[in-house]
Amino acid sequence: MIIKEALYVISSPTVETCPKPDKPEYAFIGRSNVGKSSLINMLCNREKLAKTSATPGKTKIINHFLINKSWYIVDLPGYGYAKISQSQRRQWEQMIENYLRKRENLVNVFILIDARHSPQANDLEFIHNLGKWEIPFTLVFTKADKEKPAVVERNVKAFADKLRESWQFLPRQFITSAEKKTGRDEILQFIDECNKA
Ligand code: GTP
Ligand code: MG
């Protein structure tokens, strides 16, 4: 798929103020600083579409981008950011749960996982919740350029092994680098197939 146009539409504090749910939508979520905004920019071939930052917690609200006038990408704020209060955390959880469970045009959630690390409890917990809510998702391993391929492979395998403990079928997975544009074609092709389904 060729991305001809990528437009920032709106940042919404709640699911109720998101754009009309009349187009297929793909959300990107994962731990704070995992590379969600960078991946979106890489997919869209735009350096500054979604705001990125070396400081975790940059993305705070639900950000909609309209692609080729026909589908939405959504940049969500990350989880697992240590420097927030309990009440902020609860607010985040409520906003995300509401968005994920109420957004009727949501086709797939891309869960971003840092390829440099072994499986983390908060990623597994988030996946567990998506399963409970019956929301379709795929896994995207990020920052692959920052580690040796053998280490990435080991971490990806360890993650699959963890999931196998509670899941009969494994979700699709992509290995990516926003830096090197790895995985771009695969993800766009996946979205294209979903849009046509
Ligand atoms: P929050 O919105 O704060 O939750 O962060 P985010 O998940 O959107 O991460 P963001 O895209 O802002 O990237 C965080 C940092 O990681 C930035 O300094 C990026 O330049 C860097 N980064 C993201 N993806 C990659 C990648 O594939 N390779 C490398 N080397 N760096 C990356
Ligand atoms: Mg971000």
Automatic annotation (TrEMBL):
GO MF terms, alphabetically ordered: GTP binding; metal ion binding
Entry-linked Gene3D superfamilies: P-loop containing nucleotide triphosphate hydrolases
Listed CDD domains: YihA_EngB
Segments forming domain EngB-type G: 22-197
Classification via PROSITE patterns: G_ENGB
One annotated GO biological process: division septum assembly
Keywords annotated in UniProt: Cell cycle, Cell division, GTP-binding, Magnesium, Metal-binding, Nucleotide-binding, Septation
Superkingdom to which the source organism belongs: Bacteria
Keyword Cell cycle: yes
Cofactor (UniProt): Mg(2+)
Primary role: Necessary for normal cell division and for the maintenance of normal septation.
Sequence similarity: Belongs to the TRAFAC class TrmE-Era-EngA-EngB-Septin-like GTPase superfamily. EngB GTPase family.
NCBIfam families: GTPase_YsxC, small_GTP
Protein name, entry field: Probable GTP-binding protein EngB
Lineage, broadest ranks: Bacteria, Pseudomonadati, Bacteroidota, Chitinophagia, Chitinophagales
Originating gene: engB
